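Subject: sequence -> structure tokens, single chain

Hey, anyone have a minute? Need the predicted structure for the following. Not urgent.
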Amino acid sequence: MQSKTSWFKKELVKQDFRQVGWISLVYTVILFIVMPLNIAMYLSQDNMYTYITDNTYNNLFEFAPPIQLLTIFVAPVILAIALFRYMQVNHSADYMHSLPMKRQTIFYHKFGLGMFLLVATDLFISLVLVVISFTFDVSHFYTFSDIGIWFSLRLLLQSLVFSITVFVGMLTGLSTIQGIFTYIFMFFPVGITMLIMFNLDQILIGFPTNYLLEDQIYRYSPITYSWELLYEMNGTIVDIMSYILFTLFFTGISLWLYTKRRTEAASQTVAFAPLRPIFKYSFTFCMTLVGGSYFGGLQNQYGWLIFGYVFGSIIGYVIAQMILKKTWRVFSDWKSYFYYVLACSILFVLISLDITGYESRVPNLDDIEQVYLMEQETVNWQEGANDEQYEGIKSQSLINEVRDIHQKLIASSERSNLDRYYSNTIELKYDLKSGRQVVRKYNVPDTVSLDEQLKPIYESKAYKKMNYPILSIDQSKIKEIEIFQHINSFETVYIGSNDKRIESLIQALQQDVINRTFDDIRYPTNSFVDVMVHLKNNDTAINIRVQPTDAFFMNWLKNEGLYDEVMVTTDQVDAIYLKEFNRNSHDLYNDKSYLNNKDAIKITNDKEISELLHSISQRGAYEQERVYGIAIDIKGVNHMIVELLEPTKLPDFVSKKMD
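Reply:
Had a minute. Here:
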């Protein structure tokens, strides 16, 4: 009878284990130290319960997080490189492929052993944690379900990283390049998306880079998403299934590539000849985008943007050639570079000419369901409003005003203006009846010309509800309210959730917001006081910047006997110094520019001090070429508090003193 040959090659496994077993051992020791041994040390402390009170653990990934992340993203890479190292060395590749085994069999053994070692390490640590839980009370550290989640998520990520490393190894003939390209490949979706967004922001007028980048871009890479998945435990079943499918895909494509890979590919940077031009042009393109992002973003000039593209493309092309040819003597081959420049120039011109009509597109009034208007520099938008949680503007007349503002922004925007330092930004988001969204963002050096059209929008109830979450707050979800002064951190009042004053305080704040005029919103005055509303089971808080015109809040403070404790009053101010500056002056925030300066006006009258304190409008001042610096000398504070005053807010008595 003919004997049946087993597909399992014991000697091959033994040889591989002798070569890579040490990696698994080191990996196991590191995990043992940061997990079971770490927990054992906590349990042995005399003040363990005091420590537990001060340090809470939500899951097992919170033990030495940086080390755990390193093991997840380093151990599988090293293991995969070591197991498939033979492919990258000529004599080893010749020897292995001369054995009486199919390539599929070799792949199964190598890949299978790597996965086994990863699973064995995590399983061993999990079993040790189980044993500890039977021996000691570890309920403050973890539960049985925590062990299962820890094991599953580690295995999920490590399997993906291992399969990606093997896949990259099939495409290259150098182990060093395999390691470097593995991390580049994992980060590539996030990196290339960010580069494209940054460059489109500089080429296309109205392109909303920040809005698009905030749209969960971190999910595109296991590296950037790992914290959310492991420590925040915010992963969904879709995320988990996607990782499993990607692992299976990279495993399958790696096996197929391995059967097609030529033995002579060892020591080649790119193993497959058809992929070499793809690598060369892709690398050059990425460096082109890097150059444009760096020089265009740093200099904020269109000419430097073009220079960045040219400089980045040359550097990228040369480096790509050096990597492919493994020599620095590549400066004689520029023919393919000029083909690349021609293609990129055509692409750049087409985007700049806006052949799709992106820059000039304004949705039709009949197609719009609601619209959001956000101005970056306005205080209310900085207070934590989220347009996904609040209804937008639905009034047809106000939507028409927004469309008119949009058309004005398109007409007044210049491609050559990349300067964002002294520009306000206006972001528009249309929710269309079809379910689509149209989002645009514009840099606006001068928003005064839009005030007439912005006024009815800002004063509308819909806009305030969208931008002031205090108007829609559920009082039962309030954990604590904090009223604090910017100048003196000791002047802080805390109001707990059971305090009966919360209801009246919230009502006062809401009424003040409803009563705020366009000038209050667009050019807010500074009272040096904020109200922070902390919510239960939520790390975020609603912040209200108090203004001197908030009459209901001021009356609430007086009725509760807190006004003198919270507000900056004339009794606390020794003097105020006022001096005119250029907006960009470096002396603006220098105390010496005010003290003993003949050009500075010193004010000590209580009535005049009070009027000045109620006139500070910092936002509006940044739109003026000439501003007034106000240096406030507070009793008990060893430095001057410097604020800005725009010329239109200058009290009459100051103008008379200057004359």
